[in-house]
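Reopening this one. Same input as before:
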Amino acid sequence: MNKKNVLTVKNLNKVYTKNGSKQTHALNNLNLEVKEGEIFGLLGPNGAGKSTFINILGGSVVKTSGEVNVWGFNLDKNPRQVRASIGIVPQEVNFDPFFSPRKLLELQAGLYGVREKDRITDTILKLVSLEKQADSYARSLSGGMKRRLLVAKAMVHQPPIIILDEPTAGVDVELRTTLWENVRSLNKQGVTTILTTHYLEEAEKMCDRIGILSDGNLVALDTTRNLLQRIQTKVVYFTTDKKINIKDKFFESLKIISNEENKLVLSYEKSRINIDKIITEIKKQDVIIQDISTDDGDLEDVFLRLTKN
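Same output, byte for byte:
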């Protein structure tokens, strides 16, 4: 079944002018689509344009040119409906420490014009596992609870799209896991999720598709699986009974990373050479191979290759 696009971005540009003349292109002809019900990852180093993009969607930054459609609404013609279709979970934890989670959510719902009879405060508190803390002061919540409260605040108007901006920056592993369980459960309920992250391992585990930004340019946009298949370089570790005499360029694309008494580490490109050839070459030297292990690389390899230009 073909899922509809909940977000369509065409030729989106953001140019900042400094000192009246110097121009910085924060976003350069950005084109992307996000499908209903997917978890979409937007990756890129600091300054790549991720926050600019999110702030344009949220209405706090005005785009220079291009077209943005969210949930069928055009950003230029229906800015209010666009904002109503999105819940943004910011990086910074900031709310009044003397309000309770319940009170904060009620206030937020009021700001969005959600009528009292239409509010789902208790449902949201349950969804982010804060029902027990519903009436405690926000200042008494742990770091993890505060993060979950941010997610709850973004959901008071029941938007079909939730955007998480670096949600796990600076949080511990346990908290990260809890947050991901939250995101997955939201996603199961049909909420489309867009997340920006520094943690590539996180994107690899969580995202259906990934866009990679570098200096305001979209340098990759594909399924996570396809991006991982782009990695051509494979690293192999051999344990042998004696040192092997093997040289770089013995085969095309072969590189010796290290060669010690009975440990050989080398890399090669999968498309150019078959590992069998390397093994045959080593065995010619009357060497017993005691162990072989390989490393296929991860999203970090793709990311580094695409962002260091």
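So the earlier flakiness isn't reproducible anymore. For the record, The longest helix spans residues 173-188.
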